[in-house]
Amino acid sequence: MLVTVASIFTDLFVLVFTFLLIVRVIASYIVQPGGRFFTSLVAVTEPVVMPFRRVLPQTPGLDLAPLVTFFALRLAQYLVHQLLGV
């Protein structure tokens, strides 16, 4: 039972955070950066994205941190499933 709950929680977290990352990337092209919506979205996603941004080389006009964050979340999800035997 606990294994199932942990698996469902991990899947739900990765799903919601992936959705937020996609919305953030799309919003960065359409919404004004100073708006409440965008500021709130960045406040929610930035704690997870920032460590990858610090490690990745800066490329002008292209932020790869959300993409790397997505793959890291999927890797973490895979590892949790392997550890739990799901």
Summed up:
The protein has 86 residues and is mainly α.
Q: Which series of helices and strands comes N to C?
A: HHH
How much of the sequence is in beta strands? under 5%
Average pLDDT score: 91
Which geometry do the CA atoms define? globular
Could you tell me how far the N terminus lies from the C terminus, measured between alpha carbons in angstroms?
A: 12 Å
Which regions are unreliable across 5 or more consecutive residues at pLDDT < 50?
Answer: none
Structural class: mainly alpha
Percent in helix: over 70%
Notes on the protein architecture:
- This protein has 86 residues and is mostly helical.
- The protein has helices at residues 2-30, 36-55, 65-84.
- The chain is globular and about 45 Å long.
Question: Can you tag this structure with a few keywords?
Answer:
mainly alpha
What is the element layout, followed by pairings?
Blueprint (H helix, E strand, L loop, with lengths): L1 H29 L5 H20 L9 H20 L2
